[in-house]
Amino acid sequence: MDLNDRKFKILEAIINDYIQTAEPIGSRTIAKKYDLGVSSATIRNDMSDLEELGLIVQPHTSAGRIPSDRGYRLYVDKMMQSRELTQEEADLLHDVVENNVGQIDYLMQQTAKAIAALTNYTIVVTEPKSPKLNIRHVQLVPIDSVSAAAVIVTENKAVKNYVIRVQQMPETDKLNLISDAMNKAIKSYSLRDMESIAGTMLQSFPEEKELVTKLLKAILTAVRQNDNVQFYTSGVDNILGFPEFSNVEKAKNVFRALEKKDMLITLFDKDGSHDDDVRIMIGGENNMKELQDCSIVRADYHYGNDSYGTIGVIGPTRMNYSQTVSVLNAIIKNLDNVIKTLSKGDNKNEDSGG
Amino acid sequence: MDLNDRKFKILEAIINDYIQTAEPIGSRTIAKKYDLGVSSATIRNDMSDLEELGLIVQPHTSAGRIPSDRGYRLYVDKMMQSRELTQEEADLLHDVVENNVGQIDYLMQQTAKAIAALTNYTIVVTEPKSPKLNIRHVQLVPIDSVSAAAVIVTENKAVKNYVIRVQQMPETDKLNLISDAMNKAIKSYSLRDMESIAGTMLQSFPEEKELVTKLLKAILTAVRQNDNVQFYTSGVDNILGFPEFSNVEKAKNVFRALEKKDMLITLFDKDGSHDDDVRIMIGGENNMKELQDCSIVRADYHYGNDSYGTIGVIGPTRMNYSQTVSVLNAIIKNLDNVIKTLSKGDNKNEDSGG
DNA sequence: GTTAGCACTCATTCGGTGTGAGTGCTAACC
DNA sequence: GGTTAGCACTCACACCGAATGAGTGCTAAC
Question: Is the whole model's pTM more than 0.90, yes or no?
């Protein structure tokens, strides 16, 4: 069974209507509201076909049809029209980026807030991180007689600190010596060759085995770094505005999902295909059981050469994909532009790295 | 009109019953369920008096009575029995602290989670901060040719970093020199005397005016530090389990409140009376309009000598105050103990500071 | 292939009727 | 004076049946 033009139009009508009203829509309504030039009976036959194809479903006999996940998928892939932002929307997105530039964490929080205000969905933003990290600089900073902070500047200019505790922490001068040696060792060998680094370091500072070992561990953690990605949400209360979540259990699921930081982050990472496009997961297409009734639209923004963060929009499957995609495209563009102007301090390190 | 013993008992019965069932309770039910030795008619008269005193209210004629905010206040202040934790509860609270010691942020997240699981309320935890801060150590760490991280270890051993950007960032050796000088300057003068510090530094490094100024600014920010307190929540979905929040607007209010980080933090700080007790705000006693239907039980945990963070439990005014207070007392005790053993590295700095 | 007509389904709304938990008041009782 | 029994009254809520109406599938005619 193929989809002729009319059937496409009927599917589109159903989806557009349902996105707006959240109510099942019937053949007679379509006939009246959309001028397809055929009677409701004809539409009825077509709808029956669409249902057979799994593109729409009936919540119960004697109700109209609503789109299925597959229906949305077809719509998103083949039929969706891109929507121009209004001037106000564009201005808001532009201003929020311009006004908060320079403080990446605050910028991302405000960005999340702006998108939430614009779309009325729930926004999740992860801070920038990099898939393959190198270390720019390491510095031990004394805290007290038994602890010091290992401050690690990563390739993508994130600054991390890890507290190291040993029996007896050396004085500041010694810490500086160790830091210098470690920086040299990292430059000489690749990070892949942690054994050589460890060997050199332990040879130079045999009396500080514990400290050196823990410092190396901290560096490894910073490089792997999948553990503790910062993570902002905004507009979580918007969920409760949608009739599909008036069922408390369904709403609870979404809130539970928002607390499962780890799972959300891997969900965002999932397919690894970091093309520049906005990507869409509809209903069951994501594998968090708490989010089966939601769609997720997500996009990566870039921060420096290699690192990126993700902005995710979570809403009902009946979400306004077209608007959401436009908004995300716009904000990504703004962010990428502004961040590009920030990273001009990079010219000096071009020769030393790998 | 005074409150005789029987009226106290009746009020207590109403409150205990309502905490459990969330249903208005009438005179006949009290007479049957609680053995007060008087008839329902007598209880009826007493309840009328309690209502006149504003301790209980009727949601509508021909319904039973429910406690008012003032009723809960009286209960909490004068009548509440402290409740022993069960062995399981105590164990859970003990284990969560023991198993996550050493990573303060993760520890606090897990603590929030444990309390949420135990109480079924929503938990908010702020990271440790100090009202009057001193600086332990400052270190500039290079990032690229125009930027460096100012890593600042505060009195309470928090490690903060602030990215500084200047026209041309000096090499690592120079950064170390500046860092050393700054550490000496801070030790020589009190932080109150920022002008002397600034004077000394600018005299030593007249060519790095921009960098030094920005570094001083970063130090000031770290000291003030009221800006960006980290903040964890757990169990937000629990809110939806309570019948008082089945009204979507009321539930939304709570979620909105949880996004207003700043207001929540000042709410927690509010009365500044840092006695060791658990403190309770009932209904309208807090001044966030979004939380008028909630009660908040909060307690400070201590981290180092002077700094502290707050654990807040948010639930319906009909919350189990007794259990909540017990749980908070227990977790505070565990945290304080464990954190005390962590801060034994402090003996060395005793002589140098003010 | 399209349409009109028809029988049928079923969620939802609406009015009416009990039911029961609750109250306040009064008069009698100890 | 405090306590109690009794009674009339209120009112949220649950339940029931009928009416409504949006929707369907099927069939026969165009």
Answer: no
